[in-house]
Every structure is written in structure tokens, then in C-alpha cells.
Amino acid sequence: MTLDRAVLAFAGVMVLLSVALTWLVSPWWMLFTAFIGLNLLQSAFTGFCPAATIFKMLGVKPGTAYN
């Protein structure tokens, strides 16, 4: 798995987790969903992604988007 796919998979898991927490716990978890969306947007424009940095430190091989 490349770094790009790992970041996309992680973002998907986080969105699904936030939806489940919203459904099961509290509507306030929608703020977590909004945070994820904002992080994805800033990553698209700046090229910086905290998750990519962490995955890179863990040894995930680089892809094309995050070098």
C-alpha cells in the first residue's frame, strides 16, 4: 500500500467513525466530520497532510501525491 492510498483509507475510516459516533453518541460529533473535511481541503491546496507525515514516519512507501 502506498502513502497516497493509506491516507485515503485513513480519511475514509475517520469519516465513517465520525458518522457512527454522531448516530450513536451525539450530534456534536459532526464537528469531527467537519474537521476531517477541512483537513482534506487544506491538504489539497497546500500539499501538507499530518496523516501522511505520520504514515511516512511509520515506513509506508511513498506514492505520487505525498513525497
UniProtKB/TrEMBL annotation:
<feature type="transmembrane region" description="Helical">
    <location>
        <begin position="7"/>
        <end position="25"/>
    </location>
</feature>
<protein>
    <submittedName>
        <fullName>DUF2892 domain-containing protein</fullName>
    </submittedName>
</protein>
<keyword id="KW-0812">Transmembrane</keyword>
<keyword id="KW-1133">Transmembrane helix</keyword>
<dbReference type="InterPro" id="IPR021309">
    <property type="entry name" value="YgaP-like_TM"/>
</dbReference>
<keyword id="KW-0472">Membrane</keyword>
<feature type="domain" description="Inner membrane protein YgaP-like transmembrane">
    <location>
        <begin position="2"/>
        <end position="56"/>
    </location>
</feature>
<dbReference type="Pfam" id="PF11127">
    <property type="entry name" value="YgaP-like_TM"/>
</dbReference>
<feature type="transmembrane region" description="Helical">
    <location>
        <begin position="31"/>
        <end position="55"/>
    </location>
</feature>
